Amino acid sequence: MTAAVTKKPKVFERVAAIRTRASCKTGALMTWHLARGARLASVAVLMLGWTVPLVGQEPNPAPPVDLLFGEEIDVRVVNLEVVVEDRAGNRVHGLEADDFRIFVDGAEVGVDYFTEILENRAVETDRGEAPPAIGEGESVPTNYLLFVDDDHTHVTFRRPVLRGFADQLANLGIEDQVAVVVQSGRRLGLLSPFTTDREQTRRVLRALEQGRRYGGVLRAPRFIAGDAPAGDRMEALVGAQAGVLEDTSVAEGLSVGLVAGQIGPGADAELLSAAGDLAVPSMRLPELASEVQASALARDLEFSVIAVSSAMRALDVPNGRKVLLLLAGGWPTGMFRPAGQSIGVRTDREILDDLIDTANVLGYTVYPVDQQTRHNTTRWGNLRHMARETGGRAYMAGSNLAALRRVSVDVANYYWLGFVPDYRRDDRAHDVRVEVRGPGLRVRSRGGYVDVSARAEADMETQGRLLFPGSLESPDEPALRVDIGRPEPTGIRKMLVPVTIYIPIGYFPVLPYGDQFFATLELRFAVVDRNGGQADIPMIPIDLRGRSRPAPDAVMPYNATLTLRRRPHDLVVSVHDPLSRKTLSERVVVSFK
């Protein structure tokens, strides 16, 4: 059966309302209003030259949708790295394409691409075409992306694992490449791009071992009260995992028992409500503390999953197999009820499924590696879940010290199958099952893929630029100028932020229709605060028309007003063309002074 992808629930509303205006030198305006849960409604005044058309009045009719977007022919291959073993756990070699059957949602599909990889080399065969991702030549390199979550790992506990990685780099093939990404202080950093320079990788691993710049879980933002407002401190403290901190912390008269998760007498209910957007009158304080803590833990895990997904999407991976080595550490576990909702829960597995979907779409096999820590049945089960659903293995306890060597052996021998599905770009998840003919044979492979829509891809690209600055920009892209005005206070702890975006419309392609030229662009705003909290990304369509092609340096100013919480934010503004898939973005910092 085909399972619909469950939309991630809003953790809290940050962009409560957006007013946007596009203007030209004549002063004519176009205005949109985006309210909570409402669709975009547009009102525009026709402008001179290149314009946004007036709604309801089109002296020259707009081109049909299929002219602007055409019929997209998507030939992307779903890659399946399939391991076949006998009853004794030995690898089985010499199989052909006809020995395999692929089922998508229970229906069999053909094997379009096939090759066997034996000791990292493609075996020549007369039957089946090799997957395009293999590249040219017989040697098939493996590209290892090492992701270290500094905010959830302890320097001391991860040090033996990282030293094992450094020592085992010599086991990799000469063409294998390694990239290192770290999540630290709620930000992503590319410490090393994909490279065959082993010494460069060792230098990066030594920096993570020492922990000077990357101080690990004890320096994570949720443990630092500092000079944050009382509501922020409350949110950070109750977000700590039970047992990590053994004392109680006091902020503005709020006594928070981190281990027990209870709120002491005399707590200020209004400040607690500000921390978690909860309806206080209907709850007792112990229940309120549990709700706030669950909401904070859910946001914590969601941010980490988004960070890993952004890293996978951002990096330009060379040809060959793609492997994610995930050193996640103490990711939250359990069932999380969104704050303010009396029914419905979202489990850690459901949140992790977002990471699994991304890995399967991009062709990454996930090998989770735990730091040196005590046995945790739930967390280790989650690591195995991510590995199983992407065709990898999880390494905990003593096996994590030799994880890189074990992974390099595991990815040296497999079958690379590929098929081209009937893409509909509808964001639906599809189950994939691989069977092999022959008694007593076991198969290990990824368990599905998601038919990602163009809208979702553009949203994820904007999100990647928010969390992974500088990784997706091309030197050939023109600059997207974004000017931030003076924020003005509004409501309770909120601010109005005027923004002007100068869109280089000459950079994007236009299509002729009749005696005019048309273009459709998409404007997106993505924000993240210092605690990693994010809002849904609104998409505002901009339909443009003109009687001549815009000059290459033509720019259209566009005014917007954002309503944000009164705290520092990183804001990414992106302009995307769905026709050419070109995207321009700019990152700015917004703060209330």
What would your notes on this structure say?
- With 593 residues, the protein is an alpha+beta fold.
- The strands form seven sheets. Strands 2, 3, 4, 24, 25, 26 and 30 form a seven-stranded antiparallel β-sheet that branches. Strands 1, 6, 7, 21 and 23 form a five-stranded antiparallel β-sheet that branches.
- A hairpin with a 5-residue loop joins strand 2 (18-23) and strand 3.
- The protein is globular, with a radius of gyration of 26 Å.
SSE blueprint:
Layout: E1 3-4, E2 18-23, E3 29-34, E4 41-44, H1 65-69, E5 78-85, E6 100-104, E7 107-109, E8 113-118, E9 121-123, E10 142-149, H2 155-168, E11 177-184, E12 187-195, H3 198-210, H4 230-238, E13 248-251, E14 254-257, E15 262-263, H5 269-276, H6 285-314, E16 321-327, E17 335-336, E18 346-347, H7 348-362, E19 364-368, H8 377-390, H9 403-410, E20 414-419, E21 428-436, E22 442-444, E23 448-451, H10 454-467, E24 481-484, E25 488-490, E26 494-503, E27 511-513, E28 516-529, E29 539-546, E30 556-565, E31 569-577, E32 582-590
Parallel strand pairs: 10-11, 10-16, 16-19
Antiparallel strand pairs: 1-21, 2-3, 2-30, 3-4, 5-20, 5-22, 6-7, 6-21, 8-9, 8-20, 11-12, 13-14, 14-15, 17-18, 21-23, 24-26, 25-26, 26-30, 27-28, 28-29, 28-31, 31-32
Could you provide a short overview of the structure?
The protein is α+β, with helices and mostly antiparallel strands. The chain has ten helices and 32 strands.
The gyration radius over C-alpha positions equals: 26 Å
Overall average pLDDT: 73
- Bulk shape: globular
Range of strand content: 25-35%
The number of helical runs is 10
Major sheet attributes:
7 strands, antiparallel
Low-pLDDT sequence parts = 1-48, 223-286, 338-343
Count of strand segments = 32
The structural class is alpha+beta
Helical proportion, percent range: 10-25%
